[in-house]
Design a protein that fits this description.
Blueprint lengths: L1 H16 L3 E3 L11 E3 L3 H18 L4 E3 L9 H6 L1 H4 L1 E6 L6 E3 H27 L5 H7 L1 H22 L3 H10 L16 E4 L3 E4 L7 E4 L5 H5 L2 H7 L6 E10 L14 E11 L4 H17 L8 E5 L9 E9 L2 E10 L3 H10 L5 E3 L4 E3 L2 E8 H12 E5 L5 E5 L10 E5 L6 H12 L5 E3 L5 H11 L3 E5 L1 H6 L1 E6 L5 E5 H12 L2 H4 L4
Parallel strand pairs: 3-9, 19-20, 19-21
Antiparallel strand pairs: 1-2, 4-5, 4-6, 7-8, 9-10, 10-16, 11-12, 12-13, 13-16, 14-15, 17-18, 21-22, 22-23
Helix pairs in contact: 2-13, 5-7, 5-8, 7-8
Length: 514
């Protein structure tokens, strides 16, 4: 656990030192749980967004994009249920005066039990090697079975408490599990209560006449209220989807873990409208599609897992999360939800408009059902960043820090480095830089030794370094260095753009999810 905390501190420190993420308003001592993306962070974030958008809109002929406004009519949030039920269960420790989400305390306790199971499994895997049958072991080993029963019992009780909104029992679960405050180490808890997460503000030129509106807590509702507009103008036929990326805002009282949980964040959501009765097929389809999207980036498959929701919303048919193993454990990265016809039906009721689709194959009109995929862009940024940051021991005994990002996501694709700042090398370097910059985000650097410049670009994840030396002036060749292997080879200047473009092309990743 201490090692995980140290790794997380290293990630936060590296993100700041190399221009990825800064504390918002830092010169004024910062604003809690609000962050700015620096010169490298904004590029990585843009590339992740582009990867999602291309895979969702460009690669599906029946999915189109939308950019709905952040401000919406306040009745939107009444219809969606956010005004009455968008809450988190909070609990305070009386000794430390710290506030926690009650559900997270219980989930973290379950995670500790799961870690015990995994430790037992890994010990036996190491002992028995290739003959190890994990499924058999999990179903027969007494210690594993005992711990799994503990998890199942907690989940059953916790699910019942959530479904019944029994906050007293949620507190009692925390007491019975002897969960302590991480700060004070005591179990002196307050009662659990619900807290609404929406930010409210006013619209209008005169405050007395202003109407209360909300900063959107999610981007999905902008899609639902534009269903008729997109269906008509895009001549859309069921099944079809509407995708959107954009900022959302939640007044998180227990915001923590760097950019994992923030008050201002960005979502990438797609609502897929389907014929009622086909929801099971499409729910399975999108589960498969979304995990393929993640795994195509080359991050270890062990970092991902599906987790079915304990508590389903009253309108939901099914819901699960794709969880990622962050430095602080497995946490939600993306949600996939089968939402029935709740959203369009509710907005139809509150607006008085018929949000229906006429199906020519059935010769009837109906309110479509919806399958939703929703991923946090900031969380995806943290997942990619944390899994890519490595410290490597080199043959000469020294160490290097390298950010082994998928090349198509790297902020800078190639850096041009004249070996010396004289003898015509800078001029040749700028010539090559100008040839590359129209195709890729490139850097040009003269300062420091070539070794220090290599290390600097290893740390920001630049896939390729191009070094210009005196031989370049003689035969028009350069040295190209690859980030992960540190392998160097001599190539013709005329080949640089072709080689770099091939290696960093996002299409190479997208082809894996066709």
């Amino acid at each position: 656990m201490a090692e995980q905390r140290d790794l997380f501190k290293d990630i936060i420190s590296h993100a700041k030192e190399y221009g990825f993420v800064f504390q918002s308003s830092e010169i004024y001592d910062g604003l809690s749980s609000v962050y700015d993306y620096g010169q490298n962070g904004v590029e990585l974030k843009k590339n992740i967004r582009e990867y999602w958008w291309k895979s969702m809109v460009q690669m599906h002929e029946n999915i189109v994009g939308l950019d709905a406004a952040i401000f919406m009519h306040p009745t939107v949030w009444k219809a969606s249920g956010h005004v009455d039920a968008f809450n988190d269960p909070l609990i305070d420790n009386k000794d430390s005066k710290k506030r926690y989400r009650a559900d997270v305390l219980i989930e973290d306790h379950i995670a500790k039990i799961e870690a015990k199971i995994e430790k037992e499994v890994e010990k036996s895997r190491a002992r028995f090697g290739e003959s190890f049958d994990e499924t058999m072991y999990r179903s027969t080993n007494p210690r594993v079975m005992e711990n799994q029963k503990k998890i199942d019992d907690i989940n059953t009780r916790f699910k019942k408490a959530l479904e019944e909104n029994n906050l007293d029992d949620v507190k009692q679960i925390i007491i019975d599990l002897e969960i302590v405050c991480p700060i004070s180490g005591t179990r002196n808890w307050t009662d659990v209560r619900q807290f609404n997460l929406m930010f409210s503000t006013s619209i209008g030129s005169v405050s007395e006449e202003a109407n209360t509106i909300y900063l959107r807590p999610e981007t999905a509702q902008g899609i639902f209220v534009n269903f008729l507009n997109v269906k008509k103008t895009g001549r859309m036929k069921i099944p079809f989807g509407i995708a959107q990326t954009g900022k959302a805002f939640r007044n998180e009282i227990v915001a923590r873990q760097f950019i994992f949980r923030m008050r201002e964040f960005e979502q990438m959501e797609m609502q897929f409208f389907i014929r009622p009765g086909t929801e099971e097929k499409w729910y399975s389809f999108w589960k498969e599609q979304r995990i393929k999207w993640h795994q195509a980036l080359g991050i270890s498959e062990k970092k991902y897992r599906f987790h079915d929701h304990l508590k389903l919303a009253h309108y939901a048919k099914a819901a699960c999360d794709i969880e990622f193993e962050f430095p602080f454990g497995f946490k939600e990265l993306e949600g996939i939800h089968s939402r029935s016809d709740f959203d369009l039906s509710s907005h139809g009721k509150f607006s008085g408009k018929k949000l229906q689709y006429f199906d020519p194959e059935l010769n009837e009109s109906y309110v479509p059902y919806v399958i939703e995929t929703s991923i946090g862009l900031d969380r995806m940024f943290l997942a990619v960043f944390s899994s890519s940051l490595k410290t490597e021991k080199l043959e000469d005994g020294s160490e290097r820090t390298v950010l082994s990002l998928p090349p198509c996501l790297s902020p800078v694709k190639v850096v041009v480095l004249p070996l010396l700042n004289k003898d015509g090398l800078p001029e040749k370097g700028m010539e090559i830089f100008n040839q590359l910059k129209t195709s890729h985000l490139c850097h040009y650097e003269e300062k420091d030794t070539i070794g220090k410049r290599y290390r600097r670009h290893d740390a920001i994840g630049t896939p390729f370094c191009i070094t210009i030396d005196h031989q370049t002036l003689q035969d028009d060749t350069v040295t190209i260095r690859e980030r992960d292997t540190m392998k160097q080879e001599r190539i013709a200047v005329s080949e640089v753009l072709k080689i770099v473009s091939e290696k960093v092309n996002m299409n190479r990743v997208l082809e894996k999810i066709v």
